Amino acid sequence: MTFAKPRKKLSEPRKRRADPEAQLQRTVIAHLKARGIKGLIYHSIPNEARRTPATAARLKAQGMLPGVADLILVAPGGKAHYLELKAPKGKLSDDQEAFFAACCQSDISYNVAWEIDTALYILDNWGLLGTVRKA
To answer: Which letter does DSSP use for residue 129 in this model?
Structure first.
C-alpha cells in the first residue's frame, strides 16, 4: 500500500507592512504630475533600498550619497530644491541631518514634510505648483 505524502498547509499571503512615507511620496508625485509648473523636472532618489554590501560599495563608488532627500525638483531656470518626506513620527537620520546642513551652507532649498498639506505648502512656496491640468 502506498500513501501520498501529506501536503504542506498553504500559508496566508504575507501582509504588506504599511509604509506611510512611501504613500506620502506617491501622493506628492501625483500632485506634481497634475499641478507641476511647465518645465519642472523632478525625480525620486531611492537611497533607502536594501542591497548587498557589494552593491552598496559599487553605488557609493559611483557617487551615491547617504542622506540625500527623497525628491529633487529642478525649476525652469535651474534652481534645485530638495524635499525629504517623513512618516508622521519619522525623524531625520544623521546622514540626512548632514545633507540638510550641506544644503543650508550652499544656499540650496531643502525642506522636510511629514504630511501632504505641508508638502504641498512647501512646493507652492517654492513656486513649483500651478493649477490642475486637464487630461
So the answer is: B
Q: Output the DSSP codes for 75-128.
A: -TTS-EEEEEE--TT----HHHHHHHHHHHHTT-EEEEESSHHHHHHHHHHTT-
Find out whether 35 and 132 touch, Cβ atoms under 8 Å.
yes
Express each pLDDT in 6-38 by its tens digit.
Answer: 666 666 666 666 689 999 999 999 999 999 999
Q: Which of 110, 63, 50 is nearest to 84 (CA)?
A: 110
pLDDT tens digits, 31-57: 999 999 999 999 998 777 777 888 888
Please identify which residue in the block is written with the cell numbers 504588506.
16
3-state secondary structure of 56: helix
